[in-house]
Model the fold of this input.
Amino acid sequence: MIPAQFDYERPASLAEACQALAEDDEAKVLAGGQSLLPLLRLRLAYPSKLVDVGRLDELKGVHDRGDHVFIGAMATHDEVMRSPAVTSGCPLVAMATSHVADPAIRHRGTFGGSLAHSDPAGDLPAVVLALDGVFVARSAQGEREIPAAEFFVDYLESSLAQGEILAGVKIPKLGDGWGFHYEKFHRTAQAWAIVGVAAAVRRSNGAITEARIGLTNMGPTPLRARATEAALRGVELGDAVRQACEQAAEDTSPPSDLHAQPDYRRHLARVLTHRAVRTAAGSP
Amino acid sequence: MTVQEVGQPRRRKEDARLLTGRTQWTDNLTRPGLLHVMFLRSPMAHARIASVDVSAARGLPGVVAAFSGQDFAAEQGSLPCAWPVTEDIVIPDHPPMAVDEVRYVGEAVACVVATDRYRAADALDAIEVEYEPLPAVVDMNQALAPDSPKVHEAGNKAFNVTITSGDVEAAFRDAPVVIDRTYVQQRLIPSAMEPRAVMADTDGESFTVWSSTQIPHVLRVMLAVVTGIPEHRIRVIAPDVGGGFGSKLQVTAEEVLCLLLARRLGKPVKWTESRSEGNLTVHHGRDQIQHVRLAADADGRIRGLQVDLLADMGAYLMLVTPGIPMLGAQMFNAIYKMDAYQFGCTGVFTTKMPTDAYRGAGRPEATFAIERVMDELAAELGMDPVEVRRRNWIKHEEFPYTTISGLTYDSGNYEAATEKALALFGYDKLRAEQADRRDRGDPVQLGIGVSTFTEMCGLAPSRMLGEANYGAGGWEHASVRMLPTGKVEVITGTSPHGQGHVTSWSQIVSDALGVPFDDVTVLHGDTAIAHKGMDTYGSRSLVIGGVAVVKACDKVKEKARRLAAHLMECSPDDLEFAAGAFKVRGTEQQRTIQELAYAAFTAHDLPEGVEARLDSDATFDPDNYSFPHGTHLCAAEVDTETGMVKIRSYVAVDDVGTVINPLIVEGQVQGGIAQGIAQALFEEAVYDADGNLLTTTMADYLLPSAADLPNFTLDRTQTPATSNPLGVKGVGEAGTIASTPAVVNAIVDALRPYGIHDIRMPCTPERVWRALEGVRR
Done:
C-alpha cells in the first residue's frame, strides 16, 4: 500500500483526540482502518493527518445498560457478534454483524468505524436505523446524542462535525414478542450487499403489532421502509404480509452500479423484505 | 523395501517453506542500493501524446530519474508476438512505453525511479502529459464496421483464418435439425495471488532479471531479442512465483523497461504492481464472440459443425495473443464424431488491454460452445443431454481416433467416466426432483448441467508447433545428477509456480532410480542453473518435463549399469536393476546406485568410455498432444424470484491418465473447477464505452472464495496416455475447461421450462432475473 503522505497522531485520551481533530480540518479518524485504508491505498483520500483512536479504552467494550446495550465505537465486529449483551439484548445486531465481509475484516473493523463511514451499502447502518439506535458523539464541547434517523445525512456523510468522534451507540432493547432477521443479498460472501433488509417484527396473538424495517443500499443513506411498516401493522401472517412488502421500495432511490440497476434493486427490496419479515415473524 | 512412490498422495515438499513465510517472492528480494520504479499510466483509452514533461518529477526529493517513452524510443524495441498465425497477420509495433500514441487505459507513458516507492508514487503526480483524445474502439462488431475509427493505421482486423474439413455444405443441406447460437466469452482478468514484480541489476557487463514469471527461459531469449543485449549476458531468475494461470506467460513492458533502466542507471531497480495496476495491465483472457451452427439428424447424430469467432486481441498482439483462439481451432468438435467441420476466426483490435493466455487458453472457449450446443440439441430433440452425447462420442474401442479437425486422440474412455459420474451424482434421483419442482411450480427450480469435455494439452510436439507457425519448440529438458553421497539433484526446464513439480519429480525419480523420496532435490527457474527449458504452461510440465526426467534417469541407469558391470566383472546384460541396486543374476553380488555414484565420483576405476560422475541430460519432445477428458455434472438451484444461482452439488470424474500424486491432482482439479465456476457466475472485466476499465478492484471484479463454492465430489478413471512412457496426460487446465459449461448448462436447464435457452456469462442474479422478466411479460 503506497498512500500519499500524512501525519500520524495517537492521542492518549478521547479529549486529546477531539482536540487533534478540531485543530485540523483535513484530519481523519483512524479506527479499524477497513474503510479508510482502501481509500488511502487507492489515493482516493488525501488526509493531512490520521488520528488513531485504536488504543482509547473509552471507546472500547460492549456494555449492558438495562434498557439498552451500549456498543463502544472501537468494539470490533467480532467482539460485537460474540458479545452476550448483544446476542441477548439486540440479536439483530449480532446477526447482521456476522454477515460483515469476512473473519479477517471482522477482527479489524469496528462497529463505530463502520457506522461513522456512513456507507449505505454497509450492513450496520440499516440495522441501527431500524432499531432506532442513538449515536453518542464526543467533542471538546462535550457529549451529544444523535438519533439514528438524523445521523445519516448523505452518501458517506454523517452528521458528525469535524472535531467530533463517535464514542458509541445505544441500541434500545426491544421487549418481548419481537423477532428479527437480516436478509443480505450479495454475489460473493465478501461482497457488499446489493440490497439488504433488516427486520424487527413484533407479534401478538398471531398478528403483527409492529414492524421496523431498515434497507441497505437502497439510496444514498440507509432507509426505513415506512410504507411497509405501516401496512404491516395489525396484519395476520400470509398474503397480507406479501402485499404489505410490495411497498418496500417506496421512497427509495437505489444506486446503479456494476452489480445491479435500480429497478432490480427495487424488486429485490420487495422480495427480500417479504423474506425478512416472514422469517422475523416466525421467531418468538 | 521401497514402496512405489508414483501414485502416493505425498504431501508437497514445497509447502512447509511456503506456509511459514520462508519464501522468495520477487518483491521480497533486495539488492544494495536498490531503486524503485513506478509507471505513469494512460487514463485515456486512445489518444495522441502531444507532450510528456517529467522535469518537475525529476526535481522532487528522493527521485533519481524520470523518463518518458520518448527517452527510451531508440532502445526499447517492440514487445514480441511469437505466434503469427497467418502469413498476412498485422503485428503492430508495440513499444514498452508509449511514444506517440496510447491505445488502452493503463498503457505506460512515463516512469519514475526513486529511493522508495512512496516518493516514486508522489512523483508520478508531478508528471505532465498532454493528450489529444482519439475515439475509443471497444466493441468488436463496431470495430469491424467500415466507418469505425482505427486502433492502428492498418485497420482493426489482425488476421482471419478459415479451416474446413469435410463437406460442410452437404452436412447442413436438408439437415433435420440446425442449432444456431451465439455465445459471448466475457473478458476475464487472471488474478494470480502474487502480483507481478520485476527486479533487474547489472555488474556493468552482464544483467540479472528476477521476475514473477512462468517462463524464465523464453523471457531470456526475448529480452535479448527486444533490447539487443546479448543473450549470454542476461540471466533470468524466476524465484518463488505465486501463481500465473497464463498471465505470467508473457514478455512484459515492465520486464523490458526494468532491464533498460538498470542498464541506463547502472543500478538495481525493482517494480511491483498494485492489484489495481494489475487489473489494468496484466493481459486479460477469453473475450470472444462465438457464432456456432450445428447440423444433426433427427436421432441426434451430428452431421456438421460450423464455428465463426470474433476474438478480441485488445490493442496489441503480445507473446501468443493471436494463438489463443487458434488453440481452440481443433477443439470445438471435442469428443464427437461428425462428417464436416469448419472453423473461422477473425482477430480484432480494440482499445483495450491485450488478451493472451489464461488457464485453458482457447480450449475452455471451444469446450463451452460445443457443450452448450450439445445441450441445445438435446432440448430441441427432447432427448436427455447425456444420451445425445452418448450417441455422438468416440467409443472407447475406437481409439486411437483421428477427429474431423485432424487431431489423433490416443486414448480415452468417455463411457466409463460418464457412468461413474452419473452414479456418484445420483442423476436419476435429481432428475426426479427436478420434475417434481417443475410440477409444483417451486420458486426455486433445479437444473442439471453436463459437460463431457476433452482438451488437447501437453504443449506441445515441436513439429506441430512449427506447422502452426509458433515461434519456438515444445520440447522439455531435464538433468539428473547423482551426488557423491548418493543423493540426487534434478534440474528441470519447467518453471513451477504452484504446481508442486519438486514433489512430483521427486516421486518419479525415486521410483526410477530406487532412491528415497527425501533424497531427491529439484532445482528450477534460473537460466544459470537450468540451462535449457521451455517453461510451464498449457498443462505441459509433467507430460513433457516429467517425461524428460524419466529419460534422464534412464540414461543415468544405463551409465550406472556399465559401471556396475565393470566393477563386478560381468556383462551388463547379466545385471538386473531393482530397488536401487544392480544385481548379478543368480548371485548375491550387487552394487547400489549410491555406491556407484561414489565410484563414479572418485573415478578411480572407470570402464572405457564412462565419464566421471553419474549424471545425464535428456530432452523430450512428444509425438502428439495429450487428451485428458472427463465428465462433470452440476446441480444448480435457481431462485426464480431473485435470480440467484446456488450450486447444490458438483461431481467431476476426470481421466488424466496415470496419476503421479493424487493429492496434487485433486488440488489442480479443485482449483480448476473453482476458476471455471468463477467464469460462469462471477468474473467479468468490464470496459465502458470510452474504454475505461470499471473493474479495477476486487470489490468490482468478483473472485469467489471457498465460502462461495460447494464441496466438489471428485473421482477418476485412468486410461493411460500412449503418447508418453509415464502414461500421463496433464491436469493443470482440465477443471477450468470442464466446469464453465457444466454450470451454465445447469442454469439453462433449470430455466428451460420458461422458454429461456441462454444466460450470458457471468450468470449474475440480475441477468437471470431479467431473462425471467423478459419471458414473464
Q: What stands out?
A: The mean pLDDT of chain A is 96. The longest strand of chain A covers residues 195-204.
